[in-house]
């Protein structure tokens, strides 16, 4: 067992969303070559805990299972693309998660359970930490895209890796289900209507 491990808590979208984001990743690679997040499956990062003692961290997380079960599944929507800067003129392009009163309240409750105090802006990274030159090549292709995709999330996934192993890969640790009854207002009809309203989402570069 490792002396210290890093833990990443994430929300994983369904396969159709992963597939769509993967297509944008591949289209980007055709223009700028390989980049850091090119092969990373689509996900929404929630919390990154670094340098944790595995015995204590594993036990503490497992004790939170009942807490997570009190949350309902949440309906989220990919809605276009955005970007943010890093140090040294580097940039990240991401798929935006639409802000709604329901999703805001849901993430507020999740943050409370995880004791997260900093701001959390849910997003799905597409192209991570690339030079400004590559960003300038890619962003004109993303800025007006109307990718809109609704999806349900009913599980929090935790992965972990050895803190001090530079080549360590993230390994699955545990899934926590959101089991509380879903509130009114989210219907199959709503999902179908949203999907029908985005004829441009399959157009790539």
Give structural notes.
With 205 residues, this protein is an alpha+beta fold. The protein has one domain (5-196): Cyclic phosphodiesterase (Cyclic Phosphodiesterase, Chain: A, Alpha-Beta Complex), CATH 3.90.1140. It is built from 6 helices and 8 strands, in the order βαβααββαβαβββα. The protein has helices at 15-32, 54-63, 65-69, 101-114, 132-142, 188-196, and strands at 5-11, 44-52, 74-86, 90-97, 123-131, 148-153, 155-162, 171-177. The strands form 2 sheets. It has a 4-stranded antiparallel sheet. Strand 3 (74-86) and strand 4 form a beta hairpin. The radius of gyration is 18 Å and the shape is globular. Residues 196-200 have low confidence and may be disordered.
What is this entry, summarized?
The chain has one domain: Cyclic Phosphodiesterase, Chain: A (Alpha-Beta Complex). Helix content is 33%, strand content 33%.
Topology diagram in text:
Elements: E1 5-11, H1 15-32, E2 44-52, H2 54-63, H3 65-69, E3 74-86, E4 90-97, H4 101-114, E5 123-131, H5 132-142, E6 148-153, E7 155-162, E8 171-177, H6 188-196
Antiparallel strand pairs: 1-2, 1-7, 3-4, 3-6, 4-5, 7-8
Pfam family, one: 2_5_RNA_ligase2
Keywords: Ligase
Organism: Mucilaginibacter angelicae
């Amino acid at each position: 067992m490792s002396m210290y491990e890093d833990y990443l808590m994430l929300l994983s979208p369904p396969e159709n969303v992963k597939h769509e984001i993967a297509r944008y990743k591949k289209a980007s690679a055709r223009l700028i070559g390989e980049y850091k997040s090119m092969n990373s499956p689509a996900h929404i990062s929630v919390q990154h805990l670094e340098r944790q003692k595995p015995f204590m961290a594993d036990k503490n997380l497992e004790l939170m299972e009942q807490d997570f079960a009190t949350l309902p599944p949440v309906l989220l929507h990919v809605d276009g693309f955005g970007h943010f800067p890093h140090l040294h003129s580097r940039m990240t392009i991401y798929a935006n998660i639409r802000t709604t009163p329901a999703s805001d309240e849901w993430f507020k409750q999740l943050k409370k359970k995880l004791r997260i105090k900093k701001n959390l802006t849910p997003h799905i990274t597409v192209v991570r930490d690339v030079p400004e030159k590559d960003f300038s090549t890619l962003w004109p292709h993303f800025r007006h895209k109307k990718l809109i995709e609704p999806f349900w999330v009913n599980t929090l996934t935790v992965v972990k890796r050895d803190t001090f192993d530079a080549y360590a890969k993230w390994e699955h640790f545990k899934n926590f289900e959101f089991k509380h009854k879903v509130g009114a207002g989210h219907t199959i009809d709503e999902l179908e209507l949203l999907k029908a309203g985005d004829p441009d989402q399959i157009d790539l570069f």
